[in-house]
Amino acid sequence: MTATSDREQMAYISSQAADARVNVELDTGDMTLNIGPQHPATHGTLRIACQLDGEQVIRAEPMMGYMHRGYEKLCEVRTYPQCTTLINRIDWLGSFANEVPFILAAERLMEVEAPPRAQWIRTILFELSRVANLALFLGDMGVQIGALTPVFFAFRDRERVLNQIEEVTGGRFHPNFDRIGGLKDDIPKGWIEETRSVMVKMRTFCDEMEDLLVGNEIFQARCRGVGVIPPEVALGYGLSGANLRASGVDWDLRRDANPGLAWDQIEWRVWTHPDGDSFARYWVRLQETREATHMVDQLLDGIPSGPIMAKVPRIIKVPAGEAYVSTENPLGEMGYYVVSKGDLGPFRVKIRTPSFNNISIVPWVMKGVYVPDVITILGSLYFILGDIDR
Amino acid sequence: MTDETPPEENVDVDEKREALLISFSEILGEDLVESHLRANEDLWLRIRSESWQDSTRAVQSAGFEYFGFLSAIDWEIAPEGRYEDTEFDGGLDEEDDEPVEIDSSTGYAGGESRFQILAQFYSLSQQVGVILKTDVGEDMTIDTIRDIFPGADWHERETYEMFGISFRGHPTLQPLYLPTEFEGHPLRKDFPLLARQVKPWPGVVDIEEIPEHLEAQLEAEVMAAFEANGGAS
To answer: Are A189 and A176 within 8 A, CB to CB?
Structure first.
């Protein structure tokens, strides 16, 4: 290379740099990008209006209501047993877990307690719906970052759990099985052994997910340090479940405020992660799924004998009063505030759903992130649209 | 977990809530209008509406840093809705006139207004929750608490559109779920549920009376099943 061409080269570079400067100084303006309503990351129809500056999100505003069904109003014109049909459809991936707090609230007002056998089977079905619900998340999170294989594994293995739920309740997604005072039916013959083998398979599935995603370099690069939520912010927004535990808050309603189910009779632990990022949320859910399979195993060993239904009148009238019961659902704290006036149906039901609070942090956590991270954060916060819109 | 036996725990929780009530009546002083305690279940506090914001802040600094939910109750008896179409409600049996003449009581910890705000907070250090209530005056306005608990933002927006209660100091009080052109506040008791007016509710059969001659037989069947299950594994 001669000196002249060197000079030429330098001139070329500086002219290019000048061009670039002009481009920077130009007012590019903000751009609004709509993510959703139909987007695989939204688990339903959620629209997120993102205001962008280049690749960076300045403001993200979730817009809901595409699926608002007015369940709080509808519950007011139904009898207590009829309400569970609606409640099944709130978080449709873990529907049995939805019924439990509502039934417990009604039982609390009626001062009825389900017999121990019913409580154990309730707990088993509750944990099974947790496994089914979280299994889908574990696979689906891969899709959000472009790995397609895990979700097929998830759908394959979740079906086994759903089959077990179906065998008892008769419904894959909407069991409508919990009754005030107990359960509709007992578990069928041979079910315990089948469930045990399914739990072994689910543990294998968890290991697969761990191999495929947790140890994966791309997954780590996309999730580590992305969407960090500090614990005090998480508490102020009312985040619950794995989202809160991934921020290092050691709080699980199953352990700390057990409303009477069999969780206090078995050995298990609460998993937390100090990081508070997307990766931590995935990791905590993975551990929880595995823990839940162990819990089911223990519960299957110890089902007490006895009736599955307490003596309750056929026409259920709930005495006047108010009760708030919440449980640790797959998505977080699910609670029902039931106001009764001694009638056949509730006077007012406030449904406190986990996803509503979990997703209300989106405007906070999305500030300043890059567009591709919007999807991973949404995926890792894990919400079900029916759970937001009710 | 396993090392705690339920009876011990029950006694413990009861004391916990009573101690909590005493400490709250000290902290809140005049602002605490009324309270209600259901042993081992929950604690209700009714706050003067003027001091809603201050009391919430006091509750937060008392260790209740987890925001559960915020909503409202409309205590008016629905002129339409439940009692209008269900003849069964009125005539199920003798005592059933009672719900129609209805107790106009306003729940635990009382209340003087038609609308009440309701919020739940939880303390992780004490593992106990508290439910705060406040009356909403004629002007249908209450101070916002979104600056204290950011999670209240959306809950207040939802309450605003569903009940028509506005929150003083809330910057983005827009509908959350409903379309912008929607009129009315659906969760108010006087908002008619159109579906029920268009066609009768088929679900009423569910609460039909059992014919008298079948009642004894049914009872026996239920009891038999009950006994049979008692021996099952």
So the answer is: no
> Tokens 């679900």 identify what position?
B203
Supply the CATH classification number for the domain B6-206. Answer: 3.30.460.80
Mean pLDDT of the residues in chain B: 74
pLDDT at A200: 92
Return d(Cα A76, Cα A338) in angstroms, integer.
Answer: 10
pLDDT score of B87 more than 70:
no
Distance from CA of B89 to the nearest CA of A (A): 8
CA nearest A238 in B: which residue?
Answer: B67
What does the alpha-carbon distance between residue B10 and residue B15 come to, in Å, rounded to a whole number? 9
pLDDT(B200) > 80: no
> What whole-number distance in Å separates Cα of residue A366 and Cα of residue B160?
25
Torsion angle, alpha carbons of B25, B26, B29, B32, to 10: -20
Asked whether the beta carbons of B172 and B150 are under 8 A apart, the reply is no
Nearest-neighbour CA in chain B from A348: distance (Å): 7
Average pLDDT over every residue of B169-193: 82
Q: Tell me which H or E stretch contains A340.
A: strand A332-340
* pTM of the predicted model as reported, rounded to 2 decimal places: 0.80
Q: Please, how many CA atoms are within 13 Å of residue B127, restricted to the half-sphere of its CB?
A: 16
- Facing A70 at nearest CB: one of B65, B149, B186: B186
Average pLDDT over every residue of B17-40: 79
Q: Collect all residues of chain B within an 8 Å Cβ-Cβ radius of residue A367.
A: none
* Inter-chain touch B71–A350, beta carbons under 8 Å: yes
Separation of alpha carbons A138 and A1, rounded Å: 57
pLDDT recorded at residue B85: 44
Fold annotation for A69-354+370-377: Cytochrome-c3 Hydrogenase; chain B (1.10.645)
Instruction: State the average pLDDT over residues B177-191.
Output: 83
Q: Characterise B33 by phi-psi region: left (phi > 0), alpha (psi -120 to 50), beta (else).
A: alpha
ipTM higher than the 0.85 cut: no
